[in-house]
């Protein structure tokens, strides 16, 4: 991969920010070809339309700006939540789950516009490059990929700023100096990492948390809410049916107001380095806890345990960028199979960082109290002696082992 | 298993409470043999010595009362915490981890006193009978086991009370009526379940939580503390070296004061029923979170991921009563192997139900900032082109699949 | 479960042999109710029609005799083969895979005939009782189950013979004495176990192998054949399209003639005992090897590895009797997902106990020679430097660990 | 990695063959530094001493020739066999298990001789480069690695021959043309792959199999032998105690004579390509089957099942080159833990490609016949009613599911 590769037209994942603007210009200068920009609204909360103007102004031949919020939540976030997904026990994968969607749409635009290359702004030591590029390759194996951060020699902040100045790219006043850390935002989460945060022994300053009120500052009164699930996905809040993005939007609002979903962790990157990240996932955290609660009364024990054992592997696939790999789809088919009866209502209490299950109910409930109600029927034949037999046969191999191998 | 089985001497796991007192008398009446009582102090916080007096008064031939707190934490709780153990994603296994210790000591006492049988007070639809009896059988395969709740016909509270009255067993005033739920307590947790709690759709009343202040009532000021780990186990708090039980005691105090570790869940029993439980695990919850944090900077990625994938199975073994099974020991050997470098300090903030990691540090830290410091050495040869190769070979099978099976 | 339970009508899984004939009479005598017999032809190779006559003669009210061979192979054997299923590394599960089908049809007949109970002839220390009864319960939870071998007191061969004589049941001459071992047969395998075989240190006599020629006696000339697969299932032999049962029949013939598929092993039963079994699975063994071969060129690596890791658990579920459990179906959905491109032709050579893959081809082949043919296209950009990057990033965590934790 | 990197002294893994002789010369010419050659005898069956002479003649400064056969079998092959290791269900990993040993000794020699670099002759699309280099890096993270096949431009056979001629390297007559496939050999196996074999649809010619007689040519009389195991490892053959290498040598002789252990497969490489390989592993195949047989009577069921589920992952680690990674060692600790009672004798029959278990016995046998012998003791309390209870509680969740979610 060198810039000498001959390229006809490039679709750039363009945020409208300084870095991808520099990339846009750099691509124009180095590849001497048409650039199509693509800006996805996945809930990052910035003025997306500004990206359109900026791209046009800088000479992009075709400019795509699209709202993918519903697709993002429906086809990426919710399927992932069905698996109770946590990477390394804690991380809800807000960034990794968004990249495949952007990559997929970028490839589609390449096909629509006859582009033969795609480009992105991810750096060379991170995981995002993997999430973009593995998706590109899986969907269109002959695509040419340009990763400027691995190609150019603008390695320092200063050289970047010089390049911007030299090529007439507007640098916002607050970007003249280096930002103290980098941020990624979408409907599921806001992440902060890098630079000042690269010291796991140093507490993160409060100002870094941009997407949620701190538990300390959260209201003294709890918020109580009902979430309805159907076949493993949330469908309404307090009885109001909402679209997938509507659900997440509402829960983000309630969660962030109550200090829910902050996480400060050190995680393992696919490239072999450890990374310290600060994640704010207010709505996702509520949904994760609520989903486990509705599963707790509706999901068969062994399906649940199988899900628990497969989950770390499923999470790792998403984290590493293998959303469009066949083994992720294979796991998804098992996970989705398990969700047919995962319907019902969970009542949650949100209070100063806590998202607590207060109650759960379902017409599909497998809870044993229902069994007790069959007390007089032939069904309820739980017999005390049955337990003796169950224990004795479970113990048999242990006893034999002790006798015969002592 | 019927009371006609001939028994010479029985070691009874005796709490000193009403139920096991009735069992003590019932064993005397039905088995017409000597009874040895064994009461273990594992931090349940009751007057253990009272059990001694009561057992003697009721005619037990030999009376064992022992403090097993240190052994409990050192040999059971800490090994389990090394695995980041959570049953069904959330439950810290406070009850299941205590039963094997009691069973083990009971079997030792049977051997010391020449008893040929053991008895316990666990009921016939729960998991505790499995945890006791699988342990008994694994350790002494020819032991006779008496489980009165599966044998007698004292099925209702009334018949129990009648039996007590008829056989001159003192019934505490507050036990005349049925308790509204049952409680199990030890150093790791207090659990509440049964009766009024058997309705997962009904919120648990505040009074049921006996071991912790609610988040709402917890102090407005956070508590910040340091926990030092060595080879996967906590060894000191705020610089003060403490015994295993000392560590847990201190953290229980700080945790319960700050509303940490409450859990209201529905779990799956081994016998096939679902169960609603309320668990309070203040110190254990803090240790769980802190242990993950110290692992996050000291544990190799792939060892960590392997641990995560094995954990649900390990948790299930403990939950189901297989602590003394060889497959639990086999998993433990892998888990313990992984902990040799898991040493260092985690700073936590406790605040109204939140146990938050503030910072972590270790001389064994694998965090990449250390890598960066090798900037000028031959070691730091992370090359941007390396990432290209890494991505391309990871993508190769995906590209081939798309090309050849499209 | 005692014979005092009141029962209206019983569907008995009836083989027509001596044991189930005694059971038929015993049920009539003890339950004083109507008996429906059900005899399934699943390729056991006996005169099934004789069972019909015998059942009528003995007074069965309704007599079902059905050929289930196609359903057996299509819906049970082939789905299992898709997973490359081997229990404990070697056993192809010929007996366990047949029981759920018989149980399913028995339950359907119970519903058709208004029966409230089912009965089977499996003994009390084996696994077959689990396979029958877990299937019964999963499909019809209120069914009454009668397992005569766990109920009656005909514990010795002599008492059985006495009972037969006393109740006018014809005992074939060769059954007067005890058979030296017991046999189960169906389209997938013939198993022999028990009695003389219960000494794992004693070599099995040649006469015990009833379903195959020994390698020594097999022809000196190899048999070569082609097997075509579509979506993971075999569909034709040497170009001739056959039904599922037709495929297995043909391969059984070729396999047994060439001494293929004998297995002498000790396996672990669910009830906690070890069991020595002799299995002959000629056609199944050929299909197992051929299926792996067609997967070897058509299945994505990571789907294949996931299948390999899930397989032992899937095999255990079938062995233990959980075919109709939701977790088996959940695994099946993942396994079946993986098979969409597993189509093509495998050429095998059969020779004196060896079933060898000679060649395999597929229009879906992922084999890299195809990659090489892209030599001149932009697709084939495998770059030697890519390997360097791939290796270096895979090594990074290992290097850091050695440097930082040495 | 370019030849401009400054290098002081290189330890080359040197076979003595043409390719590594060319590499030796190329390193001298391009790196202008001292070369140390290292030739390991791991049973490849060539004249190792010739390599010494050749290296000296070509001007190597230091020449190491060492017999590592015992270490290879004891510390690499046997630990792997304890896990019943098969990659992708069939491959015994003869090549991958040898590379880490060579790499380890190479690194030790680098330290002994003050070398700062190592070099090997593995090509750029294979897995061996990973096995060498991941081992180098894991053991000595600051080592410089030279992989000539990824550096030079001698891409065709012709250019290699030209280079040899130009630099006065003797080319054996039979190497003037390209060999039709490439071979790797050690005590565990001989592999053949590449070139004419790169067509999975073409049957391999008989002459390619160099390490074993074909089943057809094998003797008409079977060979019967006893193998004794202690703690999971074989220790004697027919009662004669042998060293690890002695065991494997003897079994290779018996196995290859009887046509045992041939395998023709397509496997998945770590780099993303599929590979067709022909493997001959006569002794290893016998040991694999015998080890499973001794485990079948001595290993606890659940330890065995856990091993079976972990095995594919363990095999993949070895295949991919992660022998010295901590997660491989972590798995090994669990595997080794399980072997403490895996001792006893297996009798095998070898006949024309078949390696059949004839009998197995052990003082640690857990086989249930031993249980039967306790018939009169209190131990043998297997009760027919126990099975009823065992079944009913295993069925409970299935019944509840059917009732409540139908």
UniProtKB/TrEMBL annotation, chains A, B, C, D:
Coiled-coil ranges per the record?
none
Please give the InterPro entries that the UniProt record associates with this protein. Arginosuc_syn_C, Arginosuc_syn_N, Arginosuc_synth, Arginosuc_synth_CS, Arginosuc_synth_type_1_subfam, AS_cat/multimer_dom_body, Rossmann-like_a/b/a_fold
- Sequence ranges assigned to domain Arginosuccinate synthase C-terminal in this UniProt record: 181-399
Keyword terms of this UniProt record = Amino-acid biosynthesis, Arginine biosynthesis, ATP-binding, Cytoplasm, Ligase, Nucleotide-binding
Q: Where in the cell is it found?
A: Cytoplasm
Could you say which residues bind L-aspartate here?
123, 127-128
**Which pathway?**
Amino-acid biosynthesis; L-arginine biosynthesis; L-arginine from L-ornithine and carbamoyl phosphate: step 2/3
Known catalytic reactions: L-citrulline + L-aspartate + ATP = 2-(N(omega)-L-arginino)succinate + AMP + diphosphate + H(+)
Which superkingdom? Bacteria
**Entry's Gene Ontology BP terms:** argininosuccinate metabolic process; L-arginine biosynthetic process; urea cycle
Name of protein: Argininosuccinate synthase
């Amino acid at each position: 991969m060198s810039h000498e590769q001959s390229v006809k037209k490039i679709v750039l994942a363009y945020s409208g920010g300084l870095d991808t603007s520099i990339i846009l210009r750099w691509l124009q200068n180095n590849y001497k070809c048409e650039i199509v920009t693509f800006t996805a609204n996945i809930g990052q909360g910035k003025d997306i339309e500004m990206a359109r103007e900026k791209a046009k102004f800088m000479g992009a031949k075709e400019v795509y700006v699209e709202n993918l919020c519903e697709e993002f939540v429906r086809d990426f976030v919710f399927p992932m939540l069905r698996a109770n997904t946590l990477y390394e026990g804690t991380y809800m994968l807000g960034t990794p789950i968004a990249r495949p969607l952007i990559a997929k749409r970028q490839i589609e635009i390449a096909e629509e516009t006859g582009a033969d290359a795609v480009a992105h702004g991810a750096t060379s030591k991170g995981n995002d490059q993997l999430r973009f590029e593995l998706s590109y390759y899986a969907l269109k194996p002959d695509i040419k990929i340009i990763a400027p951060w691995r190609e150019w020699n603008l390695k320092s902040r200063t050289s970047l700023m010089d390049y911007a100045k030299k090529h007439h790219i507007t640098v916002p006043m607050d970007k003249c100096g280096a930002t103290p850390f980098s941020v990624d935002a979408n409907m599921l989460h806001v992440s902060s990492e890098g630079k000042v945060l690269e010291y796991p022994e140093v507490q993160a300053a409060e100002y870094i948390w941009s997407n949620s009120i701190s538990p300390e500052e959260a209201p003294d009164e709890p918020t109580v809410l009902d979430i309805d699930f159907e076949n493993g996905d949330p469908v309404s809040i307090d009885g109001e049916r909402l679209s997938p993005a509507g659900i997440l939007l509402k829960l983000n609002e309630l969660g962030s107001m109550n200090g829910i979903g902050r996480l400060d962790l050190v995680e393992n990157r696919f490239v072999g380095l450890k990374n310290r990240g600060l994640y704010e996932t207010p709505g996702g955290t509520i949904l994760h806890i609520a989903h486990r609660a509705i599963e707790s009364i509706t999901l068969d024990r062994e399906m649940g345990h199988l899900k628990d054992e497969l989950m770390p592997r499923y999470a790792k696939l998403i984290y590493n960028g293998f959303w469009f790999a066949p083994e992720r789809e294979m796991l998804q088919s098992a996970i989705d199979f398990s969700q047919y009866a995962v319907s019902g209502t969970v009542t949650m209490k949100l209070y100063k960082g806590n998202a607590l299950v207060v109650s759960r109910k379902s017409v599909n409930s497998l809870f044993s109290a229902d069994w007790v109600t069959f007390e007089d029927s032939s069904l309820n034949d739980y017999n005390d002696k049955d337990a003796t037999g169950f224990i004795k046969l479970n113990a048999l191999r242990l006893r034999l082992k002790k006798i015969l191998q002592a």
